[in-house]
Amino acid sequence: xxxxxxxxxxxxxxxxxxxxxxxxxxxxxxxxxxxxxxxxxxxxxxxxxxxxxxxxxxxxxxxxxxxxxxxxxxxxxxxxxxxxxxxxxxxxxxxxxxxxxxxxxxxxxxxxxxxxxxxxxxxxxxxxxxxxxxxxxxxxxxxxxxxxxxxxxxxxxxxxxxxxxxxxxxxxxxxxxxxxxxxxxxxxxxxxxxxxxxxxxxxxxxxxxxxxxxxxxxxxxxxxxxxxxxxxxx
Length: 234
Known about the structure:
By secondary structure, this protein is of the alpha+beta class. The protein has 5 helices and 10 strands; from the N terminus they run αββαβββαβββαβαβ. The protein is 20% helix and 31% strand. The strands form 2 sheets. An 8-stranded mixed beta sheet has the order 3-10-4-9-8-7-6-5. The protein is globular.
C-alpha cells in the first residue's frame, strides 16, 4: 500500500518480496530495500520519489541499482540511467497438464550441486545467478544419463504472498530441443499450485522462450521495466 492506495503485489514485485516472505534476506531501510548481491543483484523502491532514491543510495555499496519498475520513469536528479529495458511479466492461473513426454528424471538440487548449477548458468545464461541464488527457493534439474552432468535446471526466486517466481530456467546447448526446459517448468508450476501459490516469471520480449512459457500455460500480465541506475559522484 502506498499513500493509502492498495496495489497488486506483482506491480512492485521485488519490494513485495523483500517486505513480506523474503524480509529475512532484505537490507536497506525507509523506502528502499536490497537483496544480497550474491543472491539476487536487485533492489527496490516503494515509489519513484527523491526520498526513495535517497534511501536507495546508501545500500548500493558502490554497485548500480537494478530495479523492476511498473513503467519507464524519468531519471531522478543526482542519478544516471545505465540501462532501461522492457520486460514481460507472465502468470499462470491453473496447474499444467503433464505431457506424455515428461519422463525425464527430475532431481531436487541441493547446496552440493551449486558448482554444477553455476557452470550451467554460465553456459545457458538464464540471467543473474550466483553462489547463493539457490537459497531463495527450490531448484530442480536433470542430469545426463551417460555422464551425470547437469544439463537442465529451473528454480524459484522472488516470493511474496500467494505468488512464486520461476527463474534460472536453462538448458545446456547440447541438450536443447528435447523439451527439458518445459518439463522442469511444468514440474515447478504443479508444485506451486499444490502449495496454493501462483507461479509467475519474467522474460524479455525478444526471448524465444516466451513462446515456451505460453505453451506451458503462462500469459502476459504486464510489461514492466528493468532499469539500472547509479548515483552521480558527489
